[in-house]
Amino acid sequence: MGLFVVGIGVISYIASQTTQLLFESELFLRRAMKKKLAGIENHYIICGYGRIGHRIANVLKEANLPVIVVENQETSIKRIESDKLLYVMGNAQEEETLLDAGIMRAKALICTLSSDQDNVFTTLLARELRNDLYILVRSNENTNRKRILRAGADKVISPYDIGADRMANVILRPKVEQFIEKMTLDDSQDHTFDEVLVNEGSPMEGKNLAEINIRSRYEILVIAMLTKEGSIRFNPKSTDIINADDTLVILGELKAIHSFREEMCNDNRSLAERAEQIEKVTV
To answer: Model pTM?
Structure first.
């Protein structure tokens, strides 16, 4: 009987020590994570790590953009850890959670929660905390789009509408869709769409497209021109003048685009640096 009692005591002691060790280990990891988060700025907060949030986070990570994920589901946390991303475990609709994610230092907030109602509440809170923060939000129902915009979102995107439109285009415009898919999703493709910013002092400044002759020199097509005032010219004319701070949307080979960007645009920014031009808009 005495041995039995001693055995129970030993087992209880081991169990309590194991629990204590696990608790301390968890506490250490949380403190280490909090310390890492405190040193991040100009980052992108992604609320929700479902299929859409997961995809966005990893695309931004590949572009070397700093990402912090906000998630409250244990299964999703394990996936975030597996993907080696920084995260805050908590409810995105709580002020403390967003503050822990560094919302006061963030570049933008991307809300991909599965419920439009949750997205509205998170947007309201984020806008209350930061009036100058760029907020991009997923919507599931078109009827909620205006509500999300009124809550303070700068842009609302419906992945279902985009997916449906693309599927319809496969039927209606199969070759166009094949071309777009090849240009945007095929990593082995040499040609791609890109954008270049014409900086002050560029050899193109004050000249028209005919004078520069981009197509024959670089084998690059200028698809559109976005002026610094915000107007867009599709298929610009050869007589259109290029000014500093204009952006050209182009199509060409990667090497040609790189040469054109450096030689003619004075635009040596990396993909991550180009993302810095994202601006808050007035809805």
So the answer is: 0.76
